[in-house]
Write a structure and sequence with these properties.
This protein has about 375 residues and is α/β, with parallel strands linked by helices. It contains eleven helices and 18 strands. The strands form three sheets. Strands 14-13-15-16-12-17-18 form a seven-stranded mixed β-sheet, with helices on both faces. The chain has a six-stranded mixed β-sheet with strand order 5-6-7-8-9-10, covered by helices on one side. A five-stranded mixed β-sheet has the order 4-3-2-1-11. The radius of gyration is 24 Å and the shape is elongated. The two termini are about 35 Å apart. Catalyzes ATP-dependent phosphorylation of adenosylcobinamide and addition of GMP to adenosylcobinamide phosphate.
Length: about 375
């Protein structure tokens, strides 16, 4: 089955002529254009439409002379009329805006231009499509992909492409970075979808950042397309601290329903367990608990206590290096500020700096988050 994307934007296309948002501006500077979503299958079946598709097909080196069937999508109009016999593709629509295509060669395509409710997920469960095109707002596309992966509709070999791109998407470079973390491809007009699925995602990822930098949100977003995630919370209880309780509640509210939270300081033990990906948040709080438990004098720099802390750190780094499942860990970057005024503050800075450096050295990817922007260090 040949799948050609003739349009990969929202109903109005993107960029919009008079819009100065960062996404439209960046696309305009590149001379890029995402026309309203339209997909040409084997040169004979058109999903979606719009007055742009004839020119888009020509730019992609494809002819519409063999077009035998057109399936409208929500918000699209002006598709060319069929001029050839109806193609032999088996087609069904589990819901308006959702199209399931089986080609003569047995390959299967799912195009979702509308939300995927339980009836659609039930109807497509286990299909292991060859290609999935998500023509949805980005905020809906990521959880939709997680649901398709959970149901078996999207398998590891499935080529997943983002379409329906509009103002909700970040600028191109940032979108491409997020797409790699999700294991998907960003659609471009004229793209011929084929070949193997996206390359494997990094196994061990460290996300660093200062206070309120957005580091936890970045880590959570990286795993947003996973059907199941084990969230390892290392923060100890703080009875009577209302502000802390509010922060914890905000973090919990962001987590999808398929995520399971474990509150533990045994991060090394969690890393040794095979299963769904892990999100460890955060190593700074884990280290605080380790120092607290290292015995009298630990915060005052007692050499024996400090050696116990370092042994625990080395154990965690060894477990990180051999993690049994993909893992994303969050940690504080504390080495860029002023020198702490207290001995205990300096000890924490030094030991966390050592921990971060050791974990980073054993990571496949390292990010630094500043003002909500993720910078790749490795």
């Amino acid at each position: 089955m040949e799948v050609v994307l003739l349009g990969t934007g929202g109903a109005a296309g993107c960029p919009r002529p008079t819009c100065a948002c960062p996404t439209c501006s960046a696309l305009r500077q590149r001379g890029a254009w995402h026309g309203p979503t339209a997909v040409l299958v084997d040169g004979a079946l058109l999903l979606g439409g719009g007055p742009h598709v004839v020119a888009a097909a020509a730019r992609a080196g494809r002819s519409l002379a063999g077009l035998g069937r057109v399936v409208a999508l929500p918000g699209t109009a002006g598709a060319p009329a069929p001029v050839a016999p109806v193609p032999p593709h088996a087609l069904r629509q589990p819901a308006p805006g959702v199209v399931d295509v089986r080609g003569p060669d047995g390959d299967r395509l799912l195009l979702a231009a509308a939300p995927l409710g339980p009836p659609v997920l039930d109807a497509t469960a286990g299909a292991a499509y060859d290609v999935v095109v998500l023509a949805l707002p980005l905020a809906a596309a990521v959880p939709a992909l997680a649901a398709l992966r959970a149901s078996g509709a999207a398998a590891p070999r499935t080529r997943v492409v983002l379409a329906g791109l509009d103002h909700d998407a970040p600028p191109p470079d940032e979108l491409a970075r997020r797409a790699r973390a999700w294991g998907v491809q960003v659609g471009e007009d004229g793209l011929v979808v084929g070949g193997p699925a996206a390359p494997p995602r990094p196994h061990r990822v460290l996300v660093l950042g200062g206070a309120r930098s957005g580091k936890s949100l970045e880590a959570e977003r990286r795993l947003g397309a996973e059907p199941r995630v084990r969230y390892v919370a290392t923060a100890p209880d703080r009875p009577g601290d209302a502000e802390w309780a509010e922060r914890v509640a905000a973090h919990r509210a962001r987590r999808p329903p398929g995520w399971r939270t474990t509150e533990t300081s045994d991060v090394a033990g969690a890393l040794a367990v095979p299963g769904p990906p892990l999100l460890v948040d955060c190593l700074g709080l884990w280290l605080t608990g380790v120092v607290d438990g290292a015995g009298p004098g630990a915060w005052d720099g007692d050499p024996a206590a400090r050696e116990r802390v370092r042994r625990r750190v080395d154990e965690l780094v060894t477990a990180w290096s051999g993690a049994a499942a993909p893992v994303v860990a969050v940690s504080n970057e504390v080495g860029s500020g002023v020198v702490p005024a207290t001995a205990s503050g300096r000890l924490f800075r030094d030991e966390l700096g050592r921990l971060n450096a050791l974990v980073a050295a054993a990571s496949d990817e390292v990010l630094l988050v500043v003002a909500g922007q993720a910078l790749r260090l490795r």
